[in-house]
Amino acid sequence: MTGQNPVFIPGPTNIPDRLRQAMNVQTIDHRAPDFVKLLNPLLEDVKKVFKTTTGQIITFPASGTGGWEASITNTLSPGDKVLVARFGMFSHRWIDMCQRHNLDVEIIECEWGNGAPAELYAERLAADTEHKIKAVLVTHNETATGVLSDIGAVRKAMDASNHPAMLYVDCVSSLGSMDFRMDEWGVDLAVSGSQKGFMLATGMAIVGVSRKAMAAVETATCPRCFFDFRDMAGANANGGFPYTPPMGLLLGLRASLDMIFEEGLENVFARHRRLADGVRAAVDAWGLELCAKSPELYSDTVSAIYVPEGFNSDVLTNHAYDTYGMSFGVGLGEMAGRAFRIGHLGSLTDAMVLSGLATIEMAMADLNYPIELGSGVRAAQEVYRRTARPALQKVA
């Protein structure tokens, strides 16, 4: 038997049978008059996950990267200055995209394993007395290093200098798994996707857009066509799409939201915290270190773990896959060969996480890592036994 093991990469995540079945449909006419009955309530319910009442949800057939590009091209013009911190692979990729669109990118260089430096954002914004910076870009959850940044602190830094820049946030690997507060944090563009916290197949970029960001669309001059907010928002307002929609994913998103709301959004966050606490206990029992520098930076959706000196993390993840048929995240960028990642988000329970910990433990023992076989599993078991709440296990 093959293909039955859960994945422990930080996305795409495991797809519950309920959602696979929701996406497994015959062709549906997206021009039919009843399409609006699916689309409009769906977009309204997505707002609850972003925690916005004033923002607008725009979706595109794309991955999260498409959502990034849509956000940039709809609200900025070539030559506009943006401020962004580089502290992981995904913040680096956002920088690269901005540069390719001929934006003037001011970079705050940070050691990987740290989060977004609110105090340095504050300094740069205070120094920008002419308000040349048009947007501040922040990665909420850096998937390469397992680091969670304080978006509320960045917003306070912006407000302290009374700076009018817009705030753009990558929440691809956090939305729907960890608390995100678009309105409270004053986020103008929040970029996510279907394949992580929403537990669906890859293929839908999901963007929360503030009123301020929608107004910026009218003056921005970066070229866009497929990703034009105006085309999508105008068609959505009439219950349609400007082109063929990803119907299976829309139906899947409806079912995903139903699952999330049945569990309760705050309970979803609590489950992810418990799962992450178990993984972190295992890492400590193995005597290994997380890439995240301090506990307040720990992500509840992915843990990036340094391997001991003299070991190669790519060899470890390949061995786990080739020998035991289970996938773990490889190290990216500066973490390549130095760290592996355990994704613990989406459709997961205590028991599923324990299977992943047991498997990576076996792989480490096979490769003569200096660990005690069973130590990590035992540590995680103690966490899950101590904090067991059976009602939170109903995720599939």
Descriptive account of the structure:
This protein is α/β, with parallel strands linked by helices. The chain has two domains: 18-261, Type I PLP-dependent aspartate aminotransferase-like (Major domain) (Aspartate Aminotransferase, domain 2); 264-393, Alpha-Beta Complex (Aspartate Aminotransferase, domain 1), CATH 3.90.1150. Helices cover 41% and strands 14% of the residues. It has helices at residues 17-23, 35-50, 64-75, 89-100, 118-127, 151-160, 211-216, 229-237, 247-263, 265-286, 313-324, 350-366, 375-386, and strands spanning 56-60, 81-86, 104-109, 133-139, 141-142, 147-148, 166-170, 189-193, 205-209, 289-290, 302-306, 339-343. Strand 5 and strand 6 form a beta hairpin. Helix 5 runs parallel beside helix 6 (151-160), helix 10 (265-286) packs antiparallel against helix 13 and helix 12 packs antiparallel against helix 13. It is globular and about 60 Å long. The two termini are 21 Å apart.
